[in-house]
Amino acid sequence: MKPPAVSKTSAFNVSPLDLKEVDAAKWDALLPAANPFISHAFLSALEESGAVSAKTGWWPAHAGVWEGVRLVAALPCYVKSHSWGEYVFDWQWADAWEQASGDYYPKMVSAIPFTPSSGPRLLHAADIDITDVIDVLIPWLEARCGSSWHLLFPQENEEQSWLDAWPKLMQRRSVQYHWHNRGYRDFDDFLSCFTSKRRKEVRRERRKVAEQGFTLRRLSGNEIDLAALRHFYRCYQITYLERGQTGYLPFSFFERVCKRMPQHISLVQALHPQGQWIEDLCDDREEGFTDEYAGATPVAVALFFHDEHQLYGRYWGSEVAADSLHFEVCYYQGIELAIERGYHHFDPGTQGEHKIPRGFEPRFTYSAHWITAPPLRKAIDDFLQEEHRHTEHHLTKAVALLPFKQDFFFKQE
To answer: What domains sit in the chain, N to C, each tagged with a CATH number?
Structure first.
């Protein structure tokens, strides 16, 4: 008979972890997979650029778990003075706490700032049991989390490990729409799985982009020069300015990630022949910029991240309003890129039921929440139970709206 496992919790020590003092290789050695957003390069670029700081309401407060002098686990943590940039909305919880004469902020989140993409959150060495790490982290979090602690967009199996170890955690689910590669040879092969009506609609959208004079270009890694990056950032800010806001991320953040992790980044540009239409819209463009593009000007762009198996669509912007251009640049180009490179999964970003008829399937995303005040914890738990029912109903309805032929999912089994 196999002897019972002996917990190593007592051998671990938890202490605050400063990314600036952690060797990037040691941090990345804890990654269970090559997820770009949890990497030292991405997180440190957020801090060094000032995107996350006390000033922006994202105070880094990472936890390191040590076995002697060896770093065996790490949990990204941020003390928050607001709920912006999280994409798991708890404004009502904050209002309820304040109405009860309490202070909801500061709170603590374990998340990737401004990045609603599921992935690993608790990093640990391969020879370390995640349960032992969680056991030692729970009291550390309880003592430092303020009103609450929130684990945002973990992978499902990781969240379950937290729920098993910490029964008072509350699970929350939301829905995103992702594309899955089922061995497609090319984009037409993917469309062959659609009903005739939906297939024609997608082809019509792609044809409209070409008929308006747009061409598409992809740049990867070191092909993304300073001019291309500056244009991207202009478009990125336009997306926010249209809503009366400014983008969360400064230009220096994008400079850093492009320099430090070029193998994880691709850019899709939509170009248009130079003409009065473009010149009128872009008359404040950096002098000499358009001359670099030999008669075609980039006017819209999407920036993608990727690892060995997945593509992540994160940022988009356009200087022009053009029919179907967003769908082409952000979705159809992403699908083509995923097929060509053999990625099995494409996460195009949060929200957007308009993705469903274009072949993006609904799926649950997860978060877990610890609320320190028992009365509010009970009220939130009741709210989440009701929300779960609505979320499940929404996912069921979304599946019924997918564009695939009636026997599509049966064939995949």
So the answer is: 9-177+364-400 (3.40.630.30), 182-343 (3.40.630.30)
